[in-house]
Amino acid sequence: MPDKLETSPVCCCTIIHQDVVDQVKEGLLPDSSLGEMAELFKCLGDPTRLKIVYALLAAEMCVCDIGALLEMSTPAISHHLKVLRQLKLVTFRRSGKIVYYTIADEHISPILSQALAHIKESGNG
Question: What is the rounded distance in angstroms from the CA atom of residue 89 to the CA atom of residue 34?
Fold first, then answer.
């Protein structure tokens, strides 16, 4: 009979390379930055919000046009846009009674491009 099967690889000591631990610790981001990044990824983890972001990467659009594109109600789109605005992913401008949304800055497109490249590379996209 085989001996006890190891279920997961773990170290049998508490630390071996203190210098590596210290070096990596110095380079870690502050918890506040990590929290903001987690919120960004959580926001983009919603497929509807991703669709909205991709649509706005293609063109500036008003709420009703986004709703028509995604076949969703204006209140539902407005809710998603509010979340995207809070994280400064989208911005808006008014023209009379119409509110037009656009991507807030140039950082968003590369984030999504890198995510898509990763998915395609791993064979899932």
Answer: 17
87, 58 in Cβ contact below 8 A?
Answer: no
Q: How far apart are CA 74 and CA 1, in angstroms?
A: 65
Locate the domains of the chain by residue range: 31-121
Helix axes 74-86, 47-58, angle to 10 degrees: 80
Provide the residue type at 116 as one letter: L
Please, which residues bridge with residue 99 across strands?
94
- The C-alpha angle with vertex 28 and arms to 9 and 49, in degrees rounded to 5, equals 90
The tens place of each residue's pLDDT in the chain, 125 residues long, gives 555 555 667 777 787 889 999 999 999 999 999 999 999 999 999 999 999 999 999 999 999 999 999 999 999 999 999 999 999 999 999 999 999 999 999 999 999 999 999 999 977 66
Q: Cβ distance 101 to 90 under 8 Å?
A: yes
CATH no. of 31-121: 1.10.10.10
